[in-house]
Amino acid sequence: ELGHFSEDVNKTKTEYLKSFQYESGLLLSTWIVIRIDGCHFHRFSEAHKFEKPNDEAALNLMNSCAVGVLEEFNDIVFSYGVSDEYSFVLKKESQLYGRRASDIVSAVVSYFSSMYTMKWKDFFPHREIIYPAYFDGRAVCYPSSHILRDYLAWRQVDCHINNQYNTCFWMLVKSGKTKSAAQTYLKGTQVQEKNELLAQLSGTTDYYNKLPPMFCLGSSVYRSKKEKNTVDEKEEGGIVDKLCEKVVIEYCNIIEPSFWEAHPEILDS
Amino acid sequence: ELGHFSEDVNKTKTEYLKSFQYESGLLLSTWIVIRIDGCHFHRFSEAHKFEKPNDEAALNLMNSCAVGVLEEFNDIVFSYGVSDEYSFVLKKESQLYGRRASDIVSAVVSYFSSMYTMKWKDFFPHREIIYPAYFDGRAVCYPSSHILRDYLAWRQVDCHINNQYNTCFWMLVKSGKTKSAAQTYLKGTQVQEKNELLAQLSGTTDYYNKLPPMFCLGSSVYRSKKEKNTVDEKEEGGIVDKLCEKVVIEYCNIIEPSFWEAHPEILDS
Amino acid sequence: ELGHFSEDVNKTKTEYLKSFQYESGLLLSTWIVIRIDGCHFHRFSEAHKFEKPNDEAALNLMNSCAVGVLEEFNDIVFSYGVSDEYSFVLKKESQLYGRRASDIVSAVVSYFSSMYTMKWKDFFPHREIIYPAYFDGRAVCYPSSHILRDYLAWRQVDCHINNQYNTCFWMLVKSGKTKSAAQTYLKGTQVQEKNELLAQLSGTTDYYNKLPPMFCLGSSVYRSKKEKNTVDEKEEGGIVDKLCEKVVIEYCNIIEPSFWEAHPEILDS
Amino acid sequence: ELGHFSEDVNKTKTEYLKSFQYESGLLLSTWIVIRIDGCHFHRFSEAHKFEKPNDEAALNLMNSCAVGVLEEFNDIVFSYGVSDEYSFVLKKESQLYGRRASDIVSAVVSYFSSMYTMKWKDFFPHREIIYPAYFDGRAVCYPSSHILRDYLAWRQVDCHINNQYNTCFWMLVKSGKTKSAAQTYLKGTQVQEKNELLAQLSGTTDYYNKLPPMFCLGSSVYRSKKEKNTVDEKEEGGIVDKLCEKVVIEYCNIIEPSFWEAHPEILDS
Hints:
The structure is a homotetramer. Chain A is an alpha+beta fold. Chain A has a domain at 31-157 and 217-268: Alpha-Beta Plaits, CATH 3.30.70. Chain A contains eleven helices and six strands. Chain A has helices spanning 5-8, 11-18, 41-47, 56-72, 101-123, 145-174, 179-186, 191-202, 213-217, 257-262, 264-268, and strands at residues 31-38, 76-82, 85-90, 135-142, 219-235, 238-250. The first copy, chain A, has a six-stranded antiparallel β-sheet, with helices on both faces. In chain A, helix 6 (145-174) packs parallel to helix 8. Chain A is globular.
């Protein structure tokens, strides 16, 4: 018998219970960055036999999900991904979810996660996903485009440093060293030494700089002013062809000003 | 050429950029409730032809994902789901992610979302998922088990009220009324009137109370002290059979004290 | 007997109790404005017989306290006061109290309050302070100097609107109208009408613009690059005369760019 | 000419500027503790020649201000002070300032500071206050009366430990040791050793326990159910004598349950 339920929790009580939930919005007129990171991805990548140091299919899957996120959330103007991490930049004046951090972070991370699972079979047609991949996320505000670009530069420097280290590490392991010996060997080595080591082990001059740019530079995902998609859209009077900005993936230097000068609309939006 | 990257973003700058991200933990010694809600689920349920007012398969899929969440996150002691919404209760002294709201909310919502997509085919074997389902989430703290139980009672009352309304609404629509006529018809009706309407339209006495309890009461998911699973666990000396609490789903009254008296371990944990 | 106290509250417990107190700093690289407002100042101004609509001594006391605040807190670069309200602007990169809002707000408001009580007799030599004046305060972040200047302009517009209204209101009251009749009379009147009313009641053309600028424009308090104070400062080898920026009070238009162009060092600091 | 001001800052802009200020309330149904601490009080106490280790007049002034705070803020049910620190406890369901931390902290600290300056001459009739004393403050929530009492116990233990140390330290200094020698001498000494040292230096058995309880136990300030004040209050029909709870100061053990058992109304309020 449930008919008397509603009397137990009346309007006043409901308001009281709701008022425990308060979250202020992220500071207005600042760039919001949502950064998501794979949870226990070391284990996930081993269980799913990802190639080391970089698995091209896995990275392409990540990028494809990021494209999906930009197509779903119009306020995201740029995103940058490396390894199992992705940063999404919302425009300064975005009012998405009243700028409440939990709502924005959870919606973005949830959409990304669902997409990752859905698109898995497109990128790994011969490998079943064993258990769900998942991500944690957080929001950070940057008050100026200058500091925002410093943030993105930091992520790209991190990409480069980690990639060079990992490339050396796995080449040493493949050459017969144990993981722990490889680690010891690399401790304290500088950029130049690592490059020489790579040339030596691979027998290829300038080996590192011949790697696919996606590995060295990470992936930038944004709306292109140049490339447009034709989209059918319902309007009064029937379906109409509309030109729509296409979301593109690029592997480019985002530290230098040239990228931003070539795409002023990204941070002006 | 990327070798000079690392000099651009030095240690001090990195610390500066990191320090924009600060999030304090949720108040210690309070119950944390993570509530997730489907985003645009009205559209999703139509696109995927969910039965109205309740789609049993869709609810079972939600419940199955909640079971998965409890199996992954040990600090979640109870969860309650209704429609496209689920509330997860973390124990008072949980230190999960240092109690940072964004991390906890995003990890839970991400795991739930991946699982939803992965398990879809088990519950809808003959229907393809067309586009990703996703959820937003938030964290609320309740300082006492008394208020926590009020919160859960509120969700169950809401389940009941909505279910009764929706059952009437869709029965009127199936009987030939337009949606807007059905809405007008139900405006301001009381519990008793709705029950009589249901009896009359269905030709069944006490129709509402004969509905599956999952529809009327929602779903409670928790670890059972009684039912245990045998789990293989690696230990020194080989794999060992271990008794492990089983996560169970029940459709029961959680407003009355009897449920909590029968399961004192849930809120004592 | 207290000797056994210390065993009751041990180190672990102390850490636990401390960890309930967490407050994140205000977003880095943003202007922090501390705005304080008199509590129950309507009552306070009546009890202390302040002249209406503006009491010159009371305003000078407020300004003198603001000067004291700027002399005590080096990170405050500008402040603006009107009536029983004062806004203090901290420089963008201030690290005062680790940018924790409660600490900054409380220290500023406490210093201001003590000073108000201490300096009372200098401004009201023949009137005893009957009970303590007090203020509440809050911190707001503004991410750009553009928005900060909009904030200050808003406060000065408010000053002007309130002053014009109050000047009319009290002139009507002094002319014999009841307070409630004066209120009704002024309802909906525009700037121009109020100016004509003032001219008519006072018998003075352009009466409003002949009022002391402190009443119409509020008070701006900042460090002057031009005027310096000689201060005795202890250094190795004895006391040394040092030139030190003088904190000045001005009644000027801070909406127009000219003020900021004439004092670029204020927002560049 | 200011008449055109109001057009510069219109309604929309005002709302925008206001919306930068958002502060959520402190968690409902938790005890709020406002703790204030003297800023640079070491310097202040030297400049104003406070007796060491405890200045009775200075402590009485602090207590008198705390009484004033309880008389002004009805939601404060208890306060505890030691040295230049005071903790004010607001009742669990207080709605003071919508539970916004900055407002509550600033109003309490401001009232306390004004009062400190106003009452100075009552406690130091022959010593002028040279410069304003000021305090910083913060709010902490405790979700149960059990943890709240642990917090208060912690402060009293701290009072005891500091007092015993300071009593020894200043007795050694008065006996001719330098401050740094006294510090070295006391390093690592236990309670028992300190008590013996005090007995030996003072020539008095059990010297420490004969000190004024205010020094050893700190000061507890609360409303007494027993002692009432007769207050004149304005009511319709004239002034009426009303019985009003008196705020009292006690120097008692608040660690032991006996105090709280004798005053159940304090935490039941």
